[in-house]
């Protein structure tokens, strides 16, 4: 947690649950990535944290944006991004939304199927298109699985078809899975992309760009290697597979850009036991899976938790949210310990929650308001 967030929470009685975002951390993350990957263009993945203040600040720093819907396109254009800094990166788009984006000036689109390519040819004539290839996402704590991408052989054929349909076959993209800690996954993916560049050259198509997606991890409970290690890994893989013909590089960081910039302030609603013999307390917070902590699904993302009573004796807990849905348990299998002295009404901070929290919060499930955010 940053000193700025600590001070803000000490000086303001925020109504919980509330996400506090330190914009300086995001700016620093952006500058660091720009410095470490000077050959790459950064397209911030808006879904990670779509707060207008975050978008406006990144726009001011010169960032581009990876968007997935008409709503995200309106958001980034509304915050001043010019359409040449916007990519419509979702491979699943309505025809009318493609037309809308094109009319607004967006000229860079993702696809992974023939049907999507046909929509693009009709509603975004002449646009630059890139094909997403399948990745297994091994090692990722939040894998994106087989829902996206197609096999490289199919992608090669589709890029040739893109040209025949009057589009500009521009490049290859992939996503190695979110919260990916295995640097080797980028090597595998970049190797595949390079092989496709060669295969497509045989059809006289000169691809220009590799989009290495997102996936860089944020620091939760477990230690991770510094962002330098991931950027080095990416650049070594580019050199290894492309030699001195390195194409344009796009990177779409979401989690690694905003994750460590936020803290959720919550409150303990109830502490109870179900049985006289039970040794674990149930601790119910005023936020759960539906209030923004969706990534605790299958206990995938393990957030660090802090209380004002830290330092004293601790005991194991089961952590749960406040709604009347039994899926709304945060951690039951994963060991979490909280202070024995913890009381109802205490504040509990969930750390590194700047990514995928407000954007995942339900609008009004069980009458609980969606997660609020303040950007400072
Ligand atoms: C979600 C998403 C990202 C961001 O991924 P992170 O793992 O949060 O960095 C990047 N690109 C695409 C296409 C995405 O869908």
From TrEMBL:
Q: Which residues form the active site?
A: 324 (proton donor)
Report the cofactors: pyridoxal 5'-phosphate
Q: Which GO terms describe its biological process?
A: putrescine biosynthetic process from arginine, via ornithine
Classification via InterPro entries: Ala_racemase/Decarboxylase_C, De-COase2_CS, De-COase2_N, De-COase2_pyr-phos_BS, Orn/DAP/Arg_de-COase, Orn_de-COase, PLP-binding_barrel
Pfam families with a match to the protein in the record: Orn_Arg_deC_N
Q: Which UniProt keywords apply?
A: Lyase, Pyridoxal phosphate
Q: Report the transmembrane regions from the record.
A: none
List the CDD domains hit by this protein, alphabetically. Answer: PLPDE_III_ODC (cd00622)
Q: Which residues carry this modification: N6-(pyridoxal phosphate)lysine?
A: 47
Record-listed E.C. numbers = 4.1.1.17
Name the source's superkingdom: Bacteria
* All copies of domain Orn/DAP/Arg decarboxylase 2 N-terminal, residue ranges: 25-258
The broad enzyme category this protein falls into is lyase
Q: Identify the metabolic or biological route this protein is part of.
A: Amine and polyamine biosynthesis; putrescine biosynthesis via L-ornithine pathway; putrescine from L-ornithine: step 1/1
Q: Which reaction does it catalyse?
A: L-ornithine + H(+) = putrescine + CO2
* CC annotations in GO: cytoplasm
Per its record, what are the GO molecular function terms? ornithine decarboxylase activity
Tell me its family. Belongs to the Orn/Lys/Arg decarboxylase class-II family.
What is the recorded name of this protein? ornithine decarboxylase
This chain's source organism reads: Elstera cyanobacteriorum
Recite the lineage of the species.
Bacteria, Pseudomonadati, Pseudomonadota, Alphaproteobacteria, Rhodospirillales
């Amino acid at each position: 947690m940053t000193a700025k967030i600590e001070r803000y929470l000490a000086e303001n009685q925020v109504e919980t649950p509330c996400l506090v975002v330190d914009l300086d951390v995001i700016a620093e993350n952006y500058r660091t990535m720009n410095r470490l990957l000077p050959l790459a263009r950064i397209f911030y993945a808006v879904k990670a944290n779509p707060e207008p203040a975050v978008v406006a600040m990144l726009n001011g720093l010169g960032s581009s944006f990876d968007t997935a819907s008409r709503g995200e396109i309106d958001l980034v254009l509304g915050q001043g991004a010019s359409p040449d800094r916007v990519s419509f990166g979702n491979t699943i788009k309505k025809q009318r939304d493609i037309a809308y984006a094109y009319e607004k000036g967006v000229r860079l689109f993702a696809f992974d199927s023939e049907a999507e390519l046909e929509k693009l040819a009709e509603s975004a004539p002449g646009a630059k298109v890139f094909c997403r290839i399948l990745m297994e996402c091994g090692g990722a704590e939040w894998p994106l699985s087989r829902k996206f991408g197609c096999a490289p052989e199919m992608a090669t054929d589709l890029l040739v078809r893109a040209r025949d349909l009057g589009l500009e076959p521009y490049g290859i993209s992939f996503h190695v899975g979110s919260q990916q800690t295995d640097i080797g996954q980028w090597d595998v993916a970049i190797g595949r992309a390079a092989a496709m560049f060669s295969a497509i050259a045989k059809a006289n198509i000169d691809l220009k760009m590799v989009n290495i997606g997102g996936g860089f991890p944020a620091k939760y409970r477990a230690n991770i290697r510094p962002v330098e290690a991931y950027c080095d890994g990416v650049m070594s893989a580019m050199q290894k597979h492309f030699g001195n013909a390195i194409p344009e590089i796009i990177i779409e960081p979401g989690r690694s850009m905003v994750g460590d910039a936020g803290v959720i302030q919550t409150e303990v609603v109830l502490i109870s036991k179900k049985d006289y013999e039970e040794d674990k307390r149930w601790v119910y917070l005023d936020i759960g899976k539906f209030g923004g902590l969706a990534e605790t699904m299958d206990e995938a993302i393990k957030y660090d938790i802090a209380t004002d009573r830290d330092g004293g004796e601790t005991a194991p807990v089961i952590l749960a949210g406040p709604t009347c849905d039994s899926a709304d348990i945060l951690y039951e299998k994963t060991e979490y310990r909280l202070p024995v002295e913890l009381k109802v009404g205490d504040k509990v901070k969930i750390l590194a929650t700047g990514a995928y929290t407000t954007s995942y919060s339900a609008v009004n499930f069980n009458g609980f308001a969606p997660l609020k955010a303040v950007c400072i």
